[in-house]
Amino acid sequence: MAEHLASIFGTEKDRVNCPFYFKIGACRHGDRCSRLHNRPTISPTLLLSNMYQRPDMITPGVDAQGQPLDPHKIQEHFEEFYEDIFEELNKFGEIESLNVCDNLADHMIGNVYVLFKEEDQAAAALQALQGRFYSGRPIIADFSPVTDFREATCRQFEENNCNRGGYCNFMHVKLIGRDLRRKLFGRYRGYRVSRSRSRSASPRKRERDYDRRERDYRDRDRDRDRDYRGNGRRNDKYDREGGRKRHGSPVREGSEERRARIEQWNREREEKQ
Q: CA dist 94 to 39, 44, 77, 86, 153, Å?
């Protein structure tokens, strides 16, 4: 029985734990979900909820005043935000992956996921972000159970054929340009394009895959917004500096170990009840 429960943990067959929260760290039902959201007490991944505010959030290609926006300006706006966030979080340690959701559903729109190399780096960043603001809005940060973005990302979106659009329940990751990616991640030793999302692929295949996704993504935006013109907006900087508090670095866990630990939390919770 125990082996069976372990084998279905975090899957659709699991009637106790929410599979979407386990895979993507977010659920459209939120606290009203009928299944458990096992929030980790430590993780190498942070979720900054609804942090990215794209200039055409209300209507694609149009700003809040109803003026058309140039898709190139929208991309510049995003890459300025991405670089700003990366440089701030990089102060706390090596970043393996920084992903921003392009989804439209309330529980995923503008979500920023940052995967650090070590858990203590994520803990230090989380501590420093408490009580801080970005672009006039409070930063809502927490540990996320997501450590493998291959399971969290919509494969159909990467192949440019997701029929759910922006309301898909899996991540539609917004891409940055290759030059910016090299600038930011190239500082790390042994860097390869998109290494954290395709660890099993060869370096050459990873580069080809990233180039294809980037090309498809830009073509999709260009087709959608080809007639729009306008100006993007720069993001403001952080409103205040936060303190830093270092924590010890627990041993990194794989998926099976994380599932076993969450099962243990469930048992302890049931015993207390």
A: 23, 11, 24, 10, 22
Strands (E), 148-194: none
Q: How far apart are CA 102 and CA 82, in angstroms?
A: 13
pLDDT at 81: 96
Question: Residue 104 in contact with residue 47, Cβ under 8 Å?
Answer: no
Element (H, E) at 269: helix 255-272
Check if the beta carbon of residue 145 is closer than 8 Å to that of residue 82.
Answer: no
Give the pLDDT confidence score for residue 34 in this predicted structure: 82
String of DSSP letters for 39-79: --SS-SEEEETT----TTSSBTTB-TTS-B--HHHHHHHHH
Q: Provide the phi-psi class of 17: left if phi over 0, else alpha when psi is between -120 and 50, else beta.
A: beta
CA pair distance 110, 49, nearest whole angstrom:
7
Closest CA to 45 of 126, 100, 127: 126
Average pLDDT, the chain: 76
